[in-house]
Fold this sequence. Notes:
nine-stranded mixed β-sheet; homodimer; 16 strands
Amino acid sequence: MSPSRVPEGEERGWLVPIGGAEEKRNDGLILGRFVQLCGGADADIVVIPTASQLADSGPRYEQVFTSLGAGRVSVIDFDTRRDCHERNRIDRISQASGIFFTGGNQLRISTLLGGTPVAQAIRAGNAHGVHVGGTSAGAAILSQHMIAFGEEGGSPTANSVRLAPGLGLTNRFVIDQHFRQRDRLGRLLAALAYNPYAVGIGLDEDTAAFIGPDDNLEVVGSGAVTVVDAGQLQFSSMDQVEDDEPVCLLGLTVHILVAGATFNLRTRKASAGTLAPHKKLPSKKQH
Amino acid sequence: MSPSRVPEGEERGWLVPIGGAEEKRNDGLILGRFVQLCGGADADIVVIPTASQLADSGPRYEQVFTSLGAGRVSVIDFDTRRDCHERNRIDRISQASGIFFTGGNQLRISTLLGGTPVAQAIRAGNAHGVHVGGTSAGAAILSQHMIAFGEEGGSPTANSVRLAPGLGLTNRFVIDQHFRQRDRLGRLLAALAYNPYAVGIGLDEDTAAFIGPDDNLEVVGSGAVTVVDAGQLQFSSMDQVEDDEPVCLLGLTVHILVAGATFNLRTRKASAGTLAPHKKLPSKKQH
């Protein structure tokens, strides 16, 4: 699936992939900023807990978003593909100012929602300015090509990743989550080795990429976002290797971004943002 | 410690860091190539098992190198710093055509050998053409700045790595080993974040970097070598972060090299080597 066209005079909504395990207290920076983005007291957020098999996933986010000041929060789940054709649920999604996917298994979202009016409504909504966020599996699902599952480990091997079509809200990046915590660089690199056009985004837990309509990505949270830009790639051996063989990749550009740092997905320029230039502190001891 | 000067008309010996767990059978590619490099039937290899606390580490490599065709193999261990001043052992090391460090704890090598005549003899030998290899801890010890220990995980944090002075056979790179298997990208990046002048080399298990006197590195073995070149680094926040905070690093160049691929530590150019250009196979099915 490809992103819907943005109508003239309108602006695409933000995409907010989160690496999982985000802070859910009242001072939760990431979820709090998502609520503000969606309008704060005027926010109308739909939580889609379809990735999860746990009954309390939806209500939990409903409670968190409400406690963070969201005006209206609803949980809409989908257990069958037929559910995704139901007028009431589609209408409810079409009214939202923000849509949020919980964690779980991204293949549950893609197998249930893929190709249905609900997926279309979400894509159309995002093109009209609706903000779409998600954590863990809910982050993976956002892009056109998503990592369905894969192996852990730092070096890419031929079979270390399985790609599947995602929701298609963007084709500029491929996401991986729990990045530092589950050692997923290898599978993200393997994903890029197939076709290096997209930017790889590895999200640590409790860390989010807030991606605006200008395709500028800003990091929020306590961890890092690893950006892998294969735009200058010299060579990939993915077409030559088999099974467990490691893949040769020459000329990757990598940025480790932390809170406040930015990366522009169009120009592919990284910036330390609020971190640089170094501020001289008049009274702090130097060591 | 810095590398000894190479006398005029002579050539520095090769450095052969190995990522650990290398194949030790008769067809062991890496150790076999090390034996050939050291002269095959004329090879005179000294095994230094000091990193290991296990009594059979030395004899095991003695047997492997002998079975791979090395003319002479001796095990020389050091239990105290006083041992490192003993004339007989120093003379034996000075006669070798190759020196090999087993795995274990790299701090055992540095605390016992550091600053002693044995360390001097190894540095001088390498400058005169003696090849020096090592696996795991024995690989880490080779460079001027070595990773003593650190944490696992893909993103660098302020305290994810502890550096210590190594043997100083080169100052061009910093090595980490068991790279894919123990998720060590974060600590290698943290090492570079302190001072980005060196190249970071992450060695997978059963994988070696054969580094010639021309500072050209070639990969041998079944895994990958991750080369992190911070030469174009735009920004490091290592001076600003504390403890568990992630470090911001912008503009790293990364190459994933597999067997046959090369990286020149002087020019910092990577090549797919024997992997590229793609060969057209006249009879093989395309898919």
